[in-house]
Design brief:
The chain is of the alpha+beta class. The protein has helices at 31-34, 60-65, 124-131, 134-142, 156-159, 169-214, 242-245, 258-262, 299-302, 331-340, 357-361, 370-413, 431-438, 450-453, and strands spanning 11-13, 21-23, 27-30, 35-38, 49-52, 56-59, 81-83, 88-91, 100-102, 107-109, 113-118, 163-166, 222-224, 232-234, 238-241, 246-248, 269-273, 276-281, 286-294, 308-317, 321-326, 364-367. Strands 16-21-19-20-17-18 form a six-stranded mixed β-sheet. A four-stranded antiparallel β-sheet has the order 4-11-8-9. It is elongated, with a radius of gyration of 25 Å. It holds the Pfam family Methylase_S.
Length: 462
Amino acid sequence: MIDDLKPYPEYMDSSLPWLGRIPKHWDCLPHRAIFEEVKEQGHIDEQLLSVTIGKGVIRQEDLLAESSKKDSSNLDKSKYKLVEPGDIAYNKMRAWQGAVGVSRYRGMVSPAYIVQRLRGESRPDYFHHLFRTPGFTKEAERWSYGITSDQWSLRPQHFKMIYSCVPPLDEQELIVGFLRDFDRQVRRFIRNRRRLIEVLNEQRRSIIRALATQGTRTGVEMQNTALDQFPILPTHWEESRVKREFTNLDHKRIPLSTTVRGEMATREYDYYGASGVIDRVEGYIFDDELLLIAEDGANLVLRNLPLAIIARGKFWVNNHAHILKPKRGNIEYFAHVLELVDYRPWVTGAAQPKLTRERMMRVGIPAPPVEEQGEIVAAINNETGTLTEGIAKAKREIDLIREYRTRLIADVVTGKADVRHLAPTPGSEDLEEMVDELEPLDGAAGELDQEALAGEEVHADD
């Protein structure tokens, strides 16, 4: 189907750098002709909504459930704005980063958010996609004002002045139908790859557990231990704890906001969060080989991303990861062991899981002789190498299909590709089903906006 994509037969110049040429029969209109701002207030019993960079408009309870963020909305919600299904909402301080989308819910948003409603007959989900393209994000940045990036704001009066392309209504429906079907194919592909990753990860984890708890030497006598998660170990191994094997360096970590990182002139060094590198920055705190353990977030329970990560060289760490420096032993061995640990018994907070420094340092772990630790690491690398390569390959394929999907959506909604002859006849799907199908593809559950929001709190009143 995708191989049949061709340009439209005739084009015209939109005179807009972010759009370029558009099909000759499309309109190019200012937003004041397409939308009207909505400021309905006083609906204090409605559910609270958030506008995120990763997924557009979502329920705030879903955002809080899948991240380590906190609800900082005002107790007095009398001035919060009503959002109806089909409305476009955007965070005026983050529109230039892609925090915009159509709502499939009735709810309320912070007074700092802007709510727009279509004036005539148009498909809101068409504009949902248009406004989430890289091109529109750059246009929103151009129209945002402020002395520094953390003050940039896309005010309603400036949103009205932006021009967007507007296909005929029947063509909007065909475009949405095409994207819905294409999106289903992409989701099916990603689901299959995720299942493959789950199978490979389980096989890999089984091998690691056997080697990390039994060693590589045959005929070794085993014994019961006092360690809840490692109940049987070789008799000559030590029953240890994290605090005996590591020095904690949490006092040296420094969080940097998204705004501060965005204003850096150079980005030479890795910036670590709870589940690995989330950005690059111009400076570093550490020049060492250290083990990082996630401190907070749903991943402590869901385990969709690594929790024990080795950081080497020069790097920066924010306040969402514990920092451990080995006192003795093989750091790779202990990384494997700490990744095997189920941290739920040590985690506090149901809505906002957190592994405190004190609890983490008390976790019981095995400590084989140093020589054996090296043997175990070598055996793990040898026996899991093919599995690790297979996992990496599947992840790369997921990343590539996401990138392709982003490019294709931008080409279709701006008229660079004609899908009229490929699009299915619009069905009777309601808005919730349509937007759910057309939402940008995130990672597995628990990854929601983690990179975009790492080091930040959920400020409903930004």
